[in-house]
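Any chance you'd type out a single protein's sequence alongside its tokenized fold?
>
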Amino acid sequence: MHMIFSKHGLWKFVDGSATILNDEGEMEDYNEKATKAFALLCEHFINAQLACIQYCENAKSAWETLCGSSPSKCKKGKTCLSTSTW
């Protein structure tokens, strides 16, 4: 997954190192890239994983939710992230 996001210049939105800037134009660019990172992340998950991250607001929180432990368990006790996703 790291390589997929790095290829698109979006990994910093997953690991949380992206910074929010004060300039309005840069803020718009930040929001657009953050949305793309979250969408790209969601494209690579199955329904059970998507159910686990349905209340996450960004790629970083979704990634942390699913990677808290490998495999991660959702609230319903189902496996959300398998090693095959890595």
Remarks:
- The helical segments are 2-7, 11-15, 24-43, 47-52, 59-67.
- The longest helix spans residues 24-43.
